Amino acid sequence: MPVIPKILVFAGSLRTGAFSISTADAAMKELALQGAEVTRISLGDYPLPIMDQDLEKEKGVPETAQKLARQIAVHDGFLIASPEYNSSIPPLVKNTIDWVSRVRRDGGRPFKPFDGKVAALCSSSDGNFAGARGLYHLRAVLMACHVEVITPQCSVGRASEAFDEHGQFKDERMRHQMETVCRTLIERAAMMSTRIEH
Ligand SMILES: Cc1cc2nc3c(=O)[nH]c(=O)nc-3n(C[C@H](O)[C@H](O)[C@H](O)COP(=O)(O)O)c2cc1C
Fold first, then answer.
1. Would you give the end-to-end CA distance of the chain in angstroms?
2. In 51-153, where do the E strands start and end?
3. Probe residue for ligand 1, chosen from 16, 20, 122, 125 as the CB with the greatest number of ligand atoms within 8 Å
4. Is the pTM of this model over 0.85?
């Protein structure tokens, strides 16, 4: 029986009306349309302090990071729709990845949440670069965490005008880019499937 890939989707912004949230929503719809089982989360439900090794030594990895690590582990892959800040990764995304990368055990057993996972990246910005420069850095960080990051990516420029009232891309090229990202992610996730079953 073919594997139905389970994909986790989240935005790298908590801002009300964030372009990243619209982009993550568009990705979620496209992934579901293409047959994936999609879980949409908000990083707002996983609040984390700024990474501080003294805090980590004193209190261990926060339970929210552990919870997010488990979410990642029960999926085959994930998709991040991120803004770029100063041509790089926004602190919310970097801090979240940093904490999850410190999760080493679950219930006393060795646990590496990122190992064997596949990821797709999207960005959005009102600027002309569409947030694409930040994705180079995000890609490198995830690869350092042993995540396979697929080559196709979707960067939404002039994001304040990119979506119609139904949250669909107005531009056919954007639709096509997102379709390609989702198809590639699904194919690769089905092939690699390393998720932990409940
Ligand atoms: C600290 C900071 C740095 C930013 N740097 C960039 C940048 O390098 N390129 C860009 O296109 N937009 C930049 N922006 C603008 C964001 O793209 C814009 O605020 C966008 O709405 C954030 O994404 P969101 O809508 O998903 O929250 C920056 C915003 C902040 C707060």
1. 19
2. 77-82, 105-106, 109-110, 118-124, 148-149
3. 125
4. yes
